[in-house]
Amino acid sequence: MGASFGRGGATQFVQDIANTDCLIIQGSNMAECHPVAFQWVTEAKLRGARVIHIDPRFTRTSAVADKHIPIRAGSDVILLGALINQVLRTGSYFEEYVAAYTNASMIVSDDYQDTEDLSGVFSGYDPETGQYDLTSWAYRSRKPGEDDIGEAGPEEHGAAKAASAAGHAHGAAGAPLDHALIERDPTMQDPRCVLQILKRHYARYTPDLVTSACGISAADFAYLSESLVANSGRERTTMFAYAVGWTQHSLGAQFIRTAAILQLLMGNVGRPGGGIMALRGHASIQGASDIPTLFNLLPGYLPMPTAGKDETLAQFLSAVSSPRQKGFWTHADAYLVSLLKAWWGDAAQPENDFCYDYLPRMNGNHNTYQSVLGMIAGTVEGYFLLGQNPAVGSANGRLQRLGMANLKWLVVRDFNLIESATWWKDGPEIATGELETDKIGTEIFFLPAANHAEKDGTFTQTQRMLQWHFKAVEPPGDARSDLSFYYVLGKKIRERLAGSTDPRDRPLLDLTWDYPQDEHGEPDADAVLREINGTYLSGEQAGQALPGFGALKADGSTASGCWIYSGVYADEVNASKNKLPDAQQSWVAPNWGWAWPMNRRILYNRASADPQGRPWSERKAYVWWDEQTGRWVGHDVPDFPLTTAPSYRPADGTSGPEALAGDDPFIMQADGKGWLFAPRGMIDGPLPTHYEAQESPIGNPLYPQQRNPARLVYPHKDNLTAPSFGEPGADVYPFVATTYRLTEHHTAGAMSRWLPYLSELQPEFFCEVSPELAAERGLVNGGWATLISPRSAIEARVLVTERMTPLIIGGRTIHQIGMPYHWGVGGTGAVVTGDSANDLLGVTLDPNVSIQESKVSSVDIQPGRRPRGEALTRLVADYQSRSGATVVTGNDIVNENDEREERR
Amino acid sequence: MTDRAAFLGWPALRQLATGDYLGRGQAVVSKKTRDKLARTATADKVVKSVCPYCAVGCGQNIFVKDGKVVQIEGDPDSPVSRGRLCPKGSASEQLVNSPTRQTTVLYRAPYATDWSPLGLEEATDMIADRVIETRRRTWQDKDENGQFLRRTMGIASLGGAALDNEENYLMKKLYTAMGAIQVENQARI
Ligand code: SF4
Ligand code: SF4
User: Which CATH architecture has domain A2-281?
Assistant: First the structure.
């Protein structure tokens, strides 16, 4: 979402679901995966909202929806693209909103060529590297003083080579533009303007195509588009909700982009009951991106520097944002310098670029799957696992375990002896004989962890809200918080290096690493959060907590560990501890927890008012301009400069927040607008385009280019790809498998399979198949089935159910198989165990965010249990050889197979 | 029991006397039930917390007695969850008190076929030594073009989505200072 709106977080707060008139849940089984949030869906229904669930499976979410629309897994861009086409063709988009708040009227470079022109790739593609050069996607510039359409100015939005797999990079700010002088056509008629490009790009995404490629009937499509149109506009709003069903694809980020485009066209962003609700699966997964345990980011979505490109602080900052663009991201220098001051304190001075050189550099994609290949290759020696169980929870579990078996040392911190701690004696490869315990040289430390009841701290939940959990009891035995573990580890490392003259040890020795500890040695989480919020370092207020990110300076006079969280400790009050009871505050509940940025609960809420600053309608009033006081006011904290009047227009040459016009609601975007077309920020295309999954039962119905040409492939003998439709051997793995989660378990099971209550509720691993598929393969309800992919073979109990619907695609029946992925083999003390669905999956990643494709893969299914021991390895090998899958098949990035064209 | 008390103890009269006309409340509560007290009523303190499973972030009230968690319930004050918890949140008391929880450090030496015990302090010392050794051995100062790298590719880390912001912050800070960049979490998975 960052590339479309300027920030990656959910646009709304959970309770706001109740205000929607139409909720489209796609890529999420919300009733089962986010059950307590689902109460707000029920609330919306009681208020008359329509709820539509689009999902391959009929689930409990479908059961209470007004309509369930089954879809072929992985075809979402076709469906949403067809909706975009429909609203553009019939003129039923929200024209006034689109003209004022989006980049629809901006003119794009004459060099831009669409996938429609180039058989499924955009201009700028380099087949050698599999990467795009983004230059030709740029806006056309105008000269200062010129208004709107004028002579074409020089294309100076800068050459930008797509960095491979940046990912989550636009969590808090949009992509940079060189400046904000952009040529526009306010009538939106110019053939090179964004709206017209959009029309052409999606012209072939028709209702017929939806029927033939997604398996959705014309009547269902009509119902969907009518619901969307009838529930958008001045008086009404539609909301989209998604979860990992959308992100876990080789073009996952583009799925979300398609919904973002649609919501911008319908005028549903920044308004109550609208937007896009991202439903995240872990207590603090939003927080773990904000303060990232991610390789390519520093806190607050500042990028980690890249070797060669960001040699100096000045070079680094010029790539992050341009001083001539609009919005708050022009202050990135203040955010970075304050971070460096927080980390290196007095050592960070203007003369040494505030220790910028202490930051390590990237030179490629260093994501977790790459690290696993590094373990297998022997370059990665040591590995820390913190509350994560990759032996079960990551794609291609066997690859994960083989990687760990080749480490020098492994540290596992968890509550229980999970599979990732015990694979060396009871993992699946020990059973097949591929690994032998006494030949594995990995040294392993298991350290018990404290849980949420045993420590103080904050989680950032799905709506960007920080909530403090108070420590209730002391952790038992050796169990400690990760705060304590890392603090002590850091101290020990620094003690050992004390006195070192080696320059490489300076960053460790100069680090600010001094937190108050309680009598049990536990560092004070409050003090850490205060450091994250930041303090003044000089002047009258020296030593005091900062009021918010607006106070950050680039001259070294402020420190802040994460600029977007600045404000959580304003006035020395830890606002994440706010727990004013629901009944005692407004429906926006601003005094419960604290949401970044600056406690704003609906983002881009300036757009809830019309260009003149009046609510679009009484019914949907949220934030508006108050003429009397000359300020923005309303139910929420305005996500806009408080005193910038709706009529304000900046002079040419103005930059930064002052350059935001009174009708630029997207304040983290370089041009202040919502991006229908992304001239920067997406590395696999400015517009979402349908490609088939890495493994697909059909040929791409739109382009000869079968798969996302910019996806990340990992050719490896232990990561083979099943042939897709039209490739030899495609019938060996004929079915589509999709994974999902259950209410009663949690991801890889570490926090649920060891609990008797939850294990009793969902004791056994199973797969869901339709009665038709059961008949075809002789599968019996309650009996066993073996599932085989090019990576592995596993067994599951069979659940025959009409909830699985065979789809007719291109005249052929496509069967889909559903599997929850919570079980694993091995582990000590687990109440229930079972084969792991993730062992079936291969590693292919979305190029924007490096997230694996686990929602779609090809498998075969046979009745009965899987073979044991070495016979299992033989079964998998036999399938591989029959399919003809090799290390190269499926991994050529551009197409690929011209024969397919004829066959289609 | 006096005759009068026994008489008033007749179910129908008991219903009338207590105003429980439908006979579903006070009138049908046995002495055994009456003498029972909820764990939540006898707790020494109630601590405000947040469910550690999914990202809805439901509010929890943790009931503590004699330094032990005795019950975890939904927090009715939370505007997000309004007192509700799903099966996972409701089961979280077992997460704290599970008998299968591993509460001591375990060590597996290279090629060993089983775990052996190890002290927490000693384990942390050994890990600090491993980090320093690996970092030395795998340090990359510059790439082949002479451009700064200042990092180690010998150390990787996975996890964070279940951790507190403060924990992620210290991890990221320490890893970055030691030059370890292969730091990842569930957001990627
Ligand atoms: S049985 Fe399941 S749904 Fe019913 S109250 Fe218990 S946990 Fe909730
Ligand atoms: S109680 Fe259930 S819905 Fe609420 S945060 Fe916990 S896991 Fe999520």
Answer: 3-Layer(aba) Sandwich (3.40)
